[in-house]
User: Which sequence fits this backbone?
């Protein structure tokens, strides 16, 4: 007797349902968390669009100091020809800010990618297996964590200057070394608490291998803390990169525009009343850091189940009739 096969359940609705569940905390956000999330996302998206469209919207290249056969005026005030003026090198300030946005985001993205790719796996292994591996990794990370962030980044950038050069890669590596211990600590501590949960014990009792348990049961319960931390670290990475550029250990001037370097060159201009060469790069740093900070704080209060405020639904209960007849 032939049996009729059951129709296959389409995969698209399942995937859409999973996406809706993942985005539910964001769509259900209320109050201050929602405001911070969307304001931060808007500011960050604006800078991302500026970085992507830099070749189109920038009036000149970041190092252009002449056009149409004539040199730009030196330290010219903002005007219709140069909306944000020019600096001591006769380059357009607006163009340097636009191209600097691209440089900043490149360094931040590369450094966060390396930091997460190194810190998260090490934290998982250290927290799950423990023992000598855990002690050695904790000792190394604590040794890195003892140094002030900026001092450690300067040392790494100085050591890489001769071998890699003062480019995007060297700046990203210097910032990566600073933030790996942060991801390691957060993931390790959360892994230690997750590995003793009943569902993890049940998976081990059924014969699941350690890396299978980590991949299927531990990772997805730990990784939810990473996006808010990464967004907040991105804001701090902007400040670290600007500090490296201000001190002369950041991006080489010939390799790209960088806001910290521009502020360094503008210090002497401020004493002469030339305000535009330092004001506009400083405002760009403040706006981008503010946007990333608001986005990170909004994500933290939205994704973290302890801080998340769930929407309340008013329920009207019908009165229960009371039997007043005597028994």
Assistant:
């Amino acid at each position: 007797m032939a049996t009729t096969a059951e129709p296959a359940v389409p995969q698209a609705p399942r995937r859409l349902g999973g996406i809706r569940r993942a985005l539910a905390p964001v769509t259900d956000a209320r109050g201050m968390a929602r405001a911070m999330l969307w304001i931060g996302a808007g500011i960050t998206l604006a800078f991302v669009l500026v970085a992507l469209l830099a070749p189109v919207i920038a009036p000149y290249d970041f190092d252009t100091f002449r056009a149409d056969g004539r040199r730009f005026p030196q330290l010219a005030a903002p005007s219709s020809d140069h909306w944000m003026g020019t600096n001591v090198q006769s380059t357009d300030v607006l163009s340097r800010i636009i191209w600097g946005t691209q440089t900043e985001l490149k360094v931040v993205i590369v450094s966060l990618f390396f930091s997460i790719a190194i810190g998260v796996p090490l934290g998982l292994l250290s927290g799950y297996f423990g023992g000598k591996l855990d002690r050695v990794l904790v000792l190394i990370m604590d040794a890195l964590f003892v140094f002030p962030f900026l001092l450690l980044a300067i040392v790494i950038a100085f050591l890489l200057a001769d071998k890699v050069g003062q480019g995007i890669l060297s700046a990203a590596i210097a910032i990566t070394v600073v933030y790996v211990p942060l991801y390691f600590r957060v993931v390790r501590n959360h892994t230690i608490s997750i590995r003793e949960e009943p569902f993890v014990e049940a998976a081990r009792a059924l014969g699941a291998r350690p890396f299978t348990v980590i991949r299927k049961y531990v990772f997805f319960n730990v990784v939810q803390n990473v996006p808010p931390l990464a967004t907040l670290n991105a804001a701090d990475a902007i400040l670290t990169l600007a500090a490296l550029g201000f001190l002369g250990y950041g991006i080489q001037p010939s390799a790209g525009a960088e806001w910290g370097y521009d502020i360094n060159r503008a210090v002497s201009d401020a004493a002469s009343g030339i305000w535009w060469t330092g004001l506009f790069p400083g405002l760009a740093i403040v706006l981008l850091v503010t946007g990333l900070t608001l986005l990170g704080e909004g994500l933290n209060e939205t994704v973290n189940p302890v801080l998340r405020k769930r929407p309340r639904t008013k329920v009207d209960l019908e009165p229960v009739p009371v039997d007043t007849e005597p028994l």
Q: What stands out?
A: The chain has one domain: 29-60+87-303. Residues 121 and 184 are 8 Å apart (CA to CA). The radius of gyration is 27 Å.
